[in-house]
UniProtKB/TrEMBL annotation:
Ranges that cross the membrane: none
Top-level lineage group: Eukaryota
Annotated protein name in UniProt: Pre-mRNA-splicing factor 18
Region (Disordered) residue spans: 15-57
Subcellular localization, as worded in the UniProt entry: Nucleus
Primary location class: nucleus
Composition skew (Basic and acidic residues), residue ranges: 18-31
GO cellular component: U2-type post-spliceosomal complex; U4/U6 x U5 tri-snRNP complex; U5 snRNP
Length: 273
């Protein structure tokens, strides 16, 4: 795959150079008063593409496509280069995702007060733990679904998994607000302690946009604002989380269902003991 990497880098460099050259000449054409003088300059853009095509031999191109099982005799050279570029980028994305999953699977899913207290200095660790914990509850549900008319069925599980996709993605790319991470971590912390009263209280705070802190955590630099403005929506910057959008509302509801399912399984386990 070393050849593929070198080809990809060379293609990217030449494509970038061609793009910059075309952009510079386009700007010159737009600012020039005499359009006749610009026309010969713009005519030089096409040869840049030819240079890019000529810089890669057909043999190297075919060999690289074969390594990806992407051979297609019906494509011309330009389309083959484009296809190789897409295949290399897809491989890089897959490799990055696999590396992330390896890192995620290496962390302990148990969330501690220290983890929550270190949100401002080690947020990534908390995000990884949250993903593992959420997936852990889902996996338990997959192993122990309830049968109708009980509510926590396979059908509901499918809805929960679908609704939590956005949350899991935001945790992975680091785009979930710190206040939401803190409240979500507090919810999972109490679920793991089997304190479902406090888990539900923390869920309510998450829903209206307040910040939920576990007992033992006083201040991590994230502060709640007045709840009334969040509920009424008078201040758009402090609107309730459940009103921020359909996808946010759905994953918050999905979290609520995970709390309820965990509580039901915990109660069922105690009754059988």
């Amino acid at each position: 795959m070393a050849l593929t990497g070198l080809l990809s880098e060379e293609i990217a460099k030449k494509r970038k150079a061609a793009k910059e050259n075309a952009q510079a000449k386009r700007t010159k054409q737009e600012t020039s008063v005499d359009t006749e003088q610009s026309s010969p300059e713009m005519a030089k853009v096409a040869p840049e593409k030819e240079k890019l095509l000529d810089s890669v031999s057909n043999e190297d191109l075919e060999r690289s496509l074969k390594a990806f099982d992407g051979e297609d005799p019906n494509l011309n050279k330009e389309d083959k280069l484009r296809k190789l570029d897409l295949l290399v980028k897809a491989e890089h994305r897959n490799d990055a995702y696999k590396a992330y999953l390896d890192e995620e699977n290496s962390v302990d899913p148990i969330i501690t007060l220290d983890d929550i207290g270190a949100i401002t200095t080690n947020k990534r660790q908390l995000e990884l733990k949250l993903r593992r914990s959420l997936k852990g509850i889902i996996k338990l549900w997959e192993c122990k679904p309830q049968e109708p008319p009980k509510p926590y069925t396979v059908g509901m599980l499918k809805e929960v998994k679908r609704d939590l996709v956005k949350l899991l993605y935001r945790l992975r790319v680091g785009k979930l607000d710190d206040s939401m991470i803190l409240s979500l971590a507090t919810i999972i912390y109490y679920i793991q302690l089997q304190d479902f009263v406090k888990a539900n209280e923390s869920y309510m705070k998450l829903s209206i946009g307040n910040v939920a802190y576990p007992i033992g955590i006083r201040d991590v630099g994230i502060h709640a604002r007045h709840a009334l403005s969040k509920i009424t929506g008078e201040d758009k910057s402090t609107i309730a989380n459940v009103m921020k959008g359909e996808s946010t509302r759905k994953w918050i509801l999905g979290v609520k269902r995970l709390i309820s399912y965990s509580e039901a399984i915990n109660k069922q386990t105690k009754e059988r003991a």
